[in-house]
Write a structure and sequence with these properties.
Bound molecules: nicotinamide-adenine-dinucleotide
Radius of gyration: 23 Å
Strand content: 5-15%
Number of helices: 19
CATH architecture of the largest domain: 3-Layer(aba) Sandwich
Largest sheet: 6 strands, parallel
CATH topology of the largest domain: Rossmann fold
Strand order of the largest sheet: 3-2-1-4-5-6
Structural class: alpha/beta
Oligomer: single chain
């Protein structure tokens, strides 16, 4: 059991802090956002993530997990400090490391014993070395420290399970001492025989970007296959299934849709391209995936336009705003560009999301007309577009839905509706890669 402080209590910091407490460590999750910490201290959970409340409650009750807005004291009391603050896209696509560096400065100032400083935030290769230099320069004591890289692979929507039962744990360490401590932090996973990849810091930092970029490429690849399938009467689901049966390919991340979004793939692919450029490496494949992804929003808009050639003054109902199901995260969600495109074409947009509507209004589109239920949203609509694969939307009653619409037009950008039913109830429909089967 180790004494841990996780700085940054967002999607990653909160889940991994609570998860490491569940492994038996003593954890303080610290954040400069006092309202978030107040909420956590009062038993609330600031984000939507299935299973997170139970995990947090269990560990708070057991006395292994606490929350603090006093980052300095939390640093001083900890032996292992995880940095889990945001690394958003900066100018030119590079990762913005301002928050990471601010935390490193706080740690330097409060280095009152040997500490491990571990980046859990996704940071470009070279960041570990940069933090080591910064802390060495700014520390006010002679205590030693080690910088470790421990990228996080959890997925929003299944983050708790992903953290507690990961496919692998990656540790970038430069000393035996740090490796020993980190193995103890993850002892529960070691004894479960979870694969551990222990490597140097630059390799660990690169593993995260390589993994995300590869998944982004897979998504863009299948989206382009879907776009051809649409034109030639092929079924992209059958294509993806048969491809996935080849063990060299694997079936995961071969689901077509409106393109990837969220707080990771868009910024991480751009940041990788930027890092490549800094080192004279031209990431042609990743760049193509980024371009195809941007275009996929237009592909969905073109499908909408096919069903509703003149949008001006017509009502379009958007079902699903989150970038994927089971999250309230709307950062870089495809819905943003698609709603913008519809409004540019003159459409009147209404939207529904079971969880993410509030965040969409709060962070991006304060004027968006959001409704409380699907039926309220689609009332007298001329076109419905499904953008998130929420279970609730998978189960839409298409017969009843049609009675509420002004025109039976649906773009199913997630391929979650039954084509047989769409045909049976007389819809004009488009989906992604199965529109003509
Ligand atoms: N969200 C994901 O699914 C996911 C998955 C894997 C990796 N990551 C990476 O993890 C990192 C965090 O992502 P997130 O989605 O959890 O971000 P987030 O925006 O949800 O949370 C970041 C938190 O850091 C806090 N913070 C910012 N500056 C701070 C400071 N100086 N001191 C203390 N707290 C500070 C913010 O208040 C916020 O609560 C990013 O690098 C991201 O790329 C995210």
């Amino acid at each position: 059991m180790r004494n841990i402080c996780v700085i940054g209590t967002g999607y990653v910091g909160l889940v991994s802090g609570a998860g490491m407490a569940d492994f038996g460590n003593s954890v303080v999750c610290a954040d400069i956002d006092k309202s978030k910490i107040d909420m956590l201290q009062a038993g609330g959970i600031p984000i939507y993530e299935p299973g997170l409340k139970e995990l947090v409650d269990r560990n708070v009750k057991a006395g292994r997990l606490a929350f603090s807005a006093d980052v300095e004291t939390s640093v001083r009391n900890a032996e292992v400090i995880f940095i889990a603050v945001g690394t958003p896209m900066g100018d030119n696509g590079e990762a913005d490391l301002k928050a990471v560096e601010a935390v490193a400065r706080t740690i330097a100032k409060n280095l009152n014993s040997y500490k491990i400083i571990c980046t859990k935030s996704t940071v470009p290769v070279g960041t570990g070395a940069r933090l080591e230099a910064l802390i060495t320069q700014e520390k006010e004591s002679d205590f030693e420290f080690d910088v470790v890289s421990n990228p996080e692979f959890l997925r929003e929507g299944s983050a708790v399970k992903d953290f507690l039962l990961p496919d692998r744990v990656v540790l970038g360490v430069n000393t035996e001492r740090a490796a020993d401590v980190m193995k103890q932090v993850y002892r529960s996973l070691f004894i479960n025989e979870t694969p551990m990849v222990i490597t140097n810091v630059p390799s660990s930092e690169m593993i995260k970007y390589a993994s995300n970029a590869f998944l982004a490429v897979k998504i863009s690849f299948i989206n382009e296959m879907a776009n051809l399938a649409d034109k030639v009467g092929a079924d992209v689901h059958t294509i993806a299934r048969a491809m996935g049966l080849d063990g060299r390919i694997s079936s995961k991340f071969l689901h077509p849709g409106p393109g990837y979004g969220g707080s990771c793939f868009p910024k991480d692919t751009e940041a990788l391209v930027y890092t490549g450029e800094q080192h004279g490496v031209d990431f042609k494949v990743v760049k193509a995936a980024i371009g195809a992804n941007k275009n996929q929003r237009n592909v969905i808009l073109a499908k909408a336009q096919e069903l509703l050639p003149d949008m001006s003054g017509n009502t379009v109902a958007i079902l699903g705003l989150a970038f994927k199901a089971n999250t309230d995260d709307v950062r870089d969600t495809p819905a943003l560009a698609i709603i913008q495109g519809l409004e540019d074409a003159g459409a009147v947009v209404r939207a529904y999301d079971p969880i993410a509507a509030e965040n969409m209004k709060k962070f991006f589109l304060p004027e968006l007309d959001t409704r409380q239920t699907v039926l309220e949203t689609v009332e007298d609509a001329d076109l419905v577009i499904i953008l998130t694969e929420w279970n609730e939307l998978r189960g839409l009653g298409l017969k009843e839905l049609k009675t509420h619409l002004r025109a039976p037009n649906i773009v199913d950008a997630r391929n979650i509706l039954s084509i047989d039913q769409l045909k049976e109830f007389g819809y004009n429909y488009r989906n992604v890669g199965r529109s003509n089967i």
